[in-house]
């Protein structure tokens, strides 16, 4: 009963938000609103919500807006993707729940939320695994990861459209500088609602506090947390520099989003619609990457102008501190960590 109410509530929000224009710019959607749309062969338009935590100023949201516009235009009115940013609709665990229930929904969220269903996704995005984006991208192409995508599709009805929406390595934005794990003792650090993040921050010396990102701005101001961990993109895009001015370069996890859709929705689409969606999300990921890499340098300068100080950290100490995280997941496939390290060695040798 509770679930039914939640679904009804979410649907009501979709309709009311779409009606009052809080989602993507309807006038750009290339659908029936501009009078040119023809719909599918039955003249129907499939409306799909695209939900994400990113705020409009962040590159991921900008690239998603472009994807949505391109899909709507190319589908000639048979598809209408509606983008909802800033977590105004369910994100995180609740967003995944929409996919699992087969809603007309695409979720752009941390890969770790797939890990709630197939725990090995946490292993492939664990702390201090990758030192470059390219290493991560190469890992996503391995059979090991492709098999996880197959598993979540077969066992949970989740089709993973992409794992490639990176938004930078995550470091610590706090009110005090951090150089060693000891510096994090007693610090309340916001993390996404994910065991991987909780264990990582705990191992690194801090007190993890789980909450959705959109709640963090007020939480820092109210003194509930001392900071958050996140990328330069997040720092600048969400204007967190107004609250905390110390950025300590732990680079402990890679900020990366998965794009997921339910298999039942996916199977209901025509082959042509599927191709359009796949191709446009792929293009979007490339644009997102290119622009993110460019913006990182620019944002570093802008953050400094806003009074942010960047700090190098004792990287070896943090690496050692985070090591125990890999033995904290009894639900991981035995030997998966060793397998990942082997793959990583091959990847590094090839690059
Ligand atoms: O806008 C929020 C985004 O940049 C980061 O969200 O939950 O991955 O920390 P999260």
Keywords:
disordered N terminus, 9 strands, 13 helices, alpha/beta, 9-stranded mixed sheet, 44% helix, 351 residues, binds SN-glycerol-3-phosphate
Please provide a written account of the structure.
By secondary structure, the chain is α/β, with parallel strands linked by helices. Helix content is 44%, strand content 19%. The chain has 13 helices and 9 strands. It has helices spanning 2-20, 59-74, 92-100, 120-123, 133-140, 143-156, 195-203, 216-221, 232-237, 263-268, 271-305, 315-322, 336-350, and strands at 46-52, 79-84, 105-110, 158-174, 188-191, 207-210, 227-230, 246-262, 309-311. Strands 1, 2, 3, 4, 5, 6, 7, 8 and 9 form a 9-stranded mixed sheet that branches. Helix 2 (59-74) packs antiparallel against helix 11 (271-305). The longest helix has 35 residues, at 271-305. The chain is globular and about 65 Å long. The termini are far apart. The model is unreliable at 1-22 and 24-38 (pLDDT under 50). The structure holds SN-glycerol-3-phosphate. The site of SN-glycerol-3-phosphate (G3P) has 11 residues, from loops.
């Amino acid at each position: 009963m509770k679930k039914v109410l939640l679904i009804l509530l979410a649907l009501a929000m979709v309709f009311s938000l779409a009606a009052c224009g809080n989602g993507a710019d309807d006038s750009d959607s290339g659908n029936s609103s501009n009078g040119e749309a023809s719909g599918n062969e039955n003249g129907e338009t499939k409306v799909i919500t695209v939900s994400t935590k990113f705020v409009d100023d962040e590159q991921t949201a900008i690239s998603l807006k472009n994807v949505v516009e391109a899909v709507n235009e190319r589908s000639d009115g048979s598809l209408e993707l509606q983008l909802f940013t800033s977590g105004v609709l369910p994100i995180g665990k609740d967003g995944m729940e929409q996919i699992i229930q087969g809603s007309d929904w695409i979720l752009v969220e941390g890969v770790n939320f797939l890990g709630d269903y197939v725990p090995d996704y946490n292993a492939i995005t664990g702390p201090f695994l990758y030192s470059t984006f390219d290493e991560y991208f190469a890992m996503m192409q391995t059979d090991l990861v492709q098999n996880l995508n197959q598993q979540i599709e077969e066992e949970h009805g989740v089709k993973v459209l992409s794992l490639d929406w990176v938004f930078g390595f995550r470091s610590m934005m706090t009110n005090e500088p951090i150089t060693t794990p000891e510096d994090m003792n007693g610090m309340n650090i916001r993390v996404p609602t994910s065991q991987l993040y909780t264990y990582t921050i705990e191992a690194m010396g801090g007190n993890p506090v789980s909450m959705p990102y959109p709640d963090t701005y007020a939480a820092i101001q109210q003194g509930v947390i001392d900071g958050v961990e996140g990328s330069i993109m997040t720092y600048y895009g969400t204007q967190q520099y107004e609250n905390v001015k110390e950025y300590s370069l732990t680079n402990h996890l890679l900020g990366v989003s998965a794009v997921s859709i339910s298999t039942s929705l996916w199977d209901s689409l025509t082959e042509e619609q599927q191709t359009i969606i796949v191709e446009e999300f792929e293009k979007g990921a490339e644009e997102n990457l290119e622009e993110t890499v460019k913006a990182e340098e620019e944002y570093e300068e802008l953050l400094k102008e806003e009074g942010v100080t960047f700090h190098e950290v004792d990287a070896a100490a943090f690496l050692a501190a985070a090591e125990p995280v890999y033995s904290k997941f009894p639900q991981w496939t035995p030997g998966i960590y060793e397998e990942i390290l082997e793959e990583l060695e091959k990847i590094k040798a090839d690059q």
